[in-house]
Amino acid sequence: DDEGRVFNFAAGPATLPASVLKQAQAELYNWRGSGMSVMEMSHRGKEFLSVIQNAEASLRSLLNIPDDYAVLFLQGGATTQFSSVPLNLCKAGDAADYIVTGSWSDKAFKEGQKYCNAKVIWSGKSAKYTSLPQAGESSLTPGARFLHICANETIHGVEFKDYPTHLGDTLLVADMSSNFCSKPVDVSKFALIYAGAQKNVGPSGVTIVIVRKDLLGNAQPITPVMLDYKIQADNNSLYNTPPCYSIYICDLVFSDLLEKGGLEAAERRNIEKAKLLYDAIDSSNGFFKCPVKGEVRSLMNVPFTMETAELEASFLKEAAEQGMVQLKGHRSVGGIRASIYNAMPRAGIEKLVALMKSFQARHSS
Ligand code: PLP
């Protein structure tokens, strides 16, 4: 654009709303008359406390989080939660089930094996992670403490639209890193939701955990203090120095989402944006192909392929020349991947679709 900004289709860290970046820029040197940058503030001072409290209040309002859930702003990325979840929810040796729908849930399972008796009860690997379990295709291990799912697989582009039900006493845990705050979610269906911030809500590093309060306080004795949810909750996420600046950016993003109509409105925008792109793929007579089946396609990460690696390389090159960047598929799957999180404007997708059409016209025989 005229400010030299590109359309950034990266899977994460991802693009942030322009209005948020501009507000942060205006407040960088002297935050709201405090004479300091948020980066320079005491995390226990009244200024920063107002930031983190406002961030929590806005997130509670966006997601309608019930009062019996704690909201934690932690560090270490979603990857750290792969260990924290079993450490806090299981005794060593407890059974825990994993539905593996792509690379991220596979990583969560592998880490979980260290701290509980983790079992894969459904895997999409044989279909190259292009599908999700259908009703009746998986059954829980008797006594399983929790069932872990990845709500949206960032690399493979499959997203749960409905969540597993009839779990009895088994707790539902979801990694929502890549679709967090992209749509409304009934938090009460989950025992625990976690998300790295760097796709829809802020800078990498800060990690949000929403956990039912009655589950706190039973961490395994070996749990590192930083990973113990009870200690973090008792200290309002201020047990040690938190990632203050990153939490401040999350606060701005949450306010921005609220101003733009909340998560119902965000979902409407995301459905429209994703439809533009999937329609372009599906109406290309096979020139572009999306391996993921219709009903489980992600609204956030859209993978697609072309006939040859040469065509893909030349498409990526033209896209970059036009200011559309980070469209290369993950190194494990190749092809193209357009990540179209909340902050990707519709104009970015319209521009991508225009290139797809002109590229196809020039390369079809
Ligand atoms: N889970 C999902 C769904 C992800 O997309 C990612 C990162 O891309 C992770 C977990 C790991 O997140 P982090 O890099 O914050 O540890």
Automatic annotation (TrEMBL):
Cofactor (UniProt): pyridoxal 5'-phosphate
Residues covered by the Aminotransferase class V domain: 6-352
Pathway assignment: Amino-acid biosynthesis; L-serine biosynthesis; L-serine from 3-phospho-D-glycerate: step 2/3
Top EC class, one word: transferase
Signal peptide: none
GO MF term (any one): O-phospho-L-serine:2-oxoglutarate aminotransferase activity
A GO cellular-component term linked to this record: chloroplast stroma
GO biological process: L-serine biosynthetic process
Keyword Transport: no
EC number: 2.6.1.52
The entry's keywords: Amino-acid biosynthesis, Aminotransferase, Pyridoxal phosphate, Serine biosynthesis, Transferase
Recorded catalytic activity of this chain's protein: O-phospho-L-serine + 2-oxoglutarate = 3-phosphooxypyruvate + L-glutamate; 4-(phosphooxy)-L-threonine + 2-oxoglutarate = (R)-3-hydroxy-2-oxo-4-phosphooxybutanoate + L-glutamate
Family the entry assigns: Belongs to the class-V pyridoxal-phosphate-dependent aminotransferase family. SerC subfamily.
Protein's name in the database: phosphoserine transaminase
Shown residues within the full chain: 74 to 438 of 438
